[in-house]
């Protein structure tokens, strides 16, 4: 059976819930997420529903800047590569179509931007310590 494309908020919730279930169980990035989020998973998931609903369904339910909470995380390119691999596998297992492809592209762009910005801020901090 060929999966459907992402169509509505229920699909966004399915995508987000499945993805973060996989993330939380992952040996490489699960500990980073679980330590940072702690007991606030329901709040985080709600925010992610709104984020992806805004990006993919053009329903403006998310406002804010997604980068600042990630700025101080103890992560590097290997973490972002793992995050992206889990995201891609999750999407491909659940959906197929233009919005599913858009989700993967947006995630890839975000991962690359977050990694670049984190490295930039770390380098700037190292320069200040010299």
Automatic annotation (TrEMBL):
Top-rank taxon, per record: Bacteria
InterPro entries associated with the record: Globin-like_sf, Globin/Proto, Hemoglobin_trunc
Keywords of this entry: Heme, Iron, Metal-binding, Transport
Any Pfam family the entry gives: Bac_globin
SUPFAM superfamilies to which the protein is assigned, alphabetical: Globin-like
Protein's name in the database: Group III truncated hemoglobin
